[in-house]
Design goal:
Rossmann fold; 4-stranded parallel β-sheet; alpha/beta
């Protein structure tokens, strides 16, 4: 009988370079997400010198900054943090939707984890709940996802090295 193989990331093999890209808009909420993400990375053994934080105006600008970070800095993972809070106009849907779509495209294009910690909520109360009160801290969750993916991808080896040896 053939056994089923399972592969998953851990939170042990997570060393590497992490870049946190932060939208300043709604900073009173986002600052807590950043604190949670940095704390989580460091608690799992990521050196403070291997964590960079890039600030942009808001969620709309996050994907462009991440694209440049991926092109230039080539980190092991990027963590996107921000808060888009619904208002009385369709602006919310456009910003939230485009930001989410772009983050997904970037991680596939650059073969690098891009953890999405951009809150998309209906009210400031919901944002506060997700920034460290009732609903946990989504910055911590995004950092955990980034670390797990870094570890998981290491299970498959370095893609560039394997392509070079195949040539």
């Amino acid at each position: 009988m053939h056994s089923i193989s399972q592969v998953e990331g851990t939170f042990v093999d997570v060393e590497g370079r992490y870049v946190i890209v932060v939208g300043r808009f709604n900073h009173h909420v986002v600052d807590s997400l950043v604190e949670g993400a940095v704390d989580s990375l460091m608690r799992h053994g990521v050196d403070a010198g291997a964590i960079d934080i890039v600030h942009v105006p808001g969620a709309w600008e996050i994907p462009l900054a991440i694209k440049r970070v991926l092109e230039v800095a080539r980190p092991d993972a990027v963590i996107a943090l921000g808060a888009v809070i619904r208002g009385g106009t369709p602006h919310f849907e456009h910003v939230a939707g485009e930001c989410n779509s772009a983050l997904s495209r970037l991680q596939l294009e650059f073969d690098t984890p891009v953890a999405n910690g951009v809150l998309t909520v209906n009210s400031i109360e919901q944002a506060i709940e997700r920034a460290g009160t009732k609903a946990g801290n989504k910055g911590v969750e995004a950092a955990m996802a980034a670390m797990e993916m870094v570890s998981l991808l290491r299970c498959f080896g370095d893609d560039e090295a394997s392509q070079e040896s195949a040539s």
